[in-house]
């Protein structure tokens, strides 16, 4: 279950924070990358990612939900027609926060928050393979739990195969 | 209003102030340009983080 944010809100109160985050989300979807303080970027990330997830579903109901936050219709349109299709295969993690050091004037830690690129074909293949390995391991575990000791040899073989596959994928990712 | 009862001696003042020091930031060498930079923060001289261009320099 999601845990409520602790501590003070950004700005003057809860409604001010909602407005600030809505404004930041609009700018993020409009420009693709924005520079802001690290605290605001960290609060913005879950808001923006939930909006993108809704945009990926793309139906009228979700469009209305997103419109409660993104009130600018042209930005809403780009979100649904350009940004959402780009992340069709990506299971979350649509934004990246990079710290860029303190700001002159008040020494506030600043960060760049940007929308990540679409997955390449190779990354896609790796992701699918990883999901398959995960499934295989899970199935193996379930089989192990279900069956008695008689079938243990077969499951352990499967497990070793899966781990070897995982290692190979890790190498592929590094390269 | 609460006020100090005694004058703070010069010695006490100076002892207190002698403990107020600046810390040296722990710097690491940048991957790309080998300039010293703060860890986990984009390099201010070449604008890269993890070899990805983040800032325009």
TrEMBL record, chain B:
InterPro entries: Ribosomal_bL32, Ribosomal_bL32_bact, Ribosomal_zn-bd
SUPFAM superfamilies per UniProt: Zn-binding ribosomal proteins (SSF57829)
Pfam families in alphabetical order: Ribosomal_L32p (PF01783)
Keywords attached to this entry: Ribonucleoprotein, Ribosomal protein
GO biological process, one term: translation
Transmembrane feature ranges: none
GO molecular function: structural constituent of ribosome
Cellular component aspect of the GO annotation: large ribosomal subunit
Protein family membership: Belongs to the bacterial ribosomal protein bL32 family.
Protein name (database record): Large ribosomal subunit protein bL32
Protein source organism: Peterkaempfera bronchialis
């Amino acid at each position: 279950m999601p845990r409520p944010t602790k501590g003070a809100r950004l700005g003057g109160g809860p409604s001010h924070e909602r407005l600030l985050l809505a404004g930041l989300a609009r700018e993020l979807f409009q420009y693709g990358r924005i520079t802001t303080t690290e605290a605001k970027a960290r609060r913005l990330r879950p808001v923006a990612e939930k909006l993108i997830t809704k945009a990926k579903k793309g139906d009228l109901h979700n469009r209305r939900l997103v419109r409660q936050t993104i009130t600018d219709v042209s930005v809403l349109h780009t979100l649904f027609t350009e940004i959402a299709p780009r992340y069709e295969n990506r299971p979350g993690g649509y934004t990246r926060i990079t710290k860029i050091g303190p700001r002159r004037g008040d020494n506030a830690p600043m960060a760049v928050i940007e929308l990540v690129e679409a997955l390449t074909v190779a990354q896609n293949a790796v992701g699918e393979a990883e999901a398959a390995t995960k499934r295989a391991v899970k199935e193996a575990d379930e089989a192990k739990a279900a069956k008695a000791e008689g079938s243990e040899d077969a499951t352990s073989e499967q497990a070793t195969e899966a781990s070897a596959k995982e290692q190979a994928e890790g190498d592929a990712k590094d390269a | 209003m609460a006020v100090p009862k005694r004058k703070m001696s010069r010695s006490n003042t100076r002892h207190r102030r002698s403990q107020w020091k600046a810390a040296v930031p722990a710097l690491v060498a940048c991957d790309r340009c080998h300039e010293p930079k703060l860890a986990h923060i984009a390099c201010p001289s070449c604008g890269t983080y993890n070899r990805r261009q983040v800032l325009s320099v």
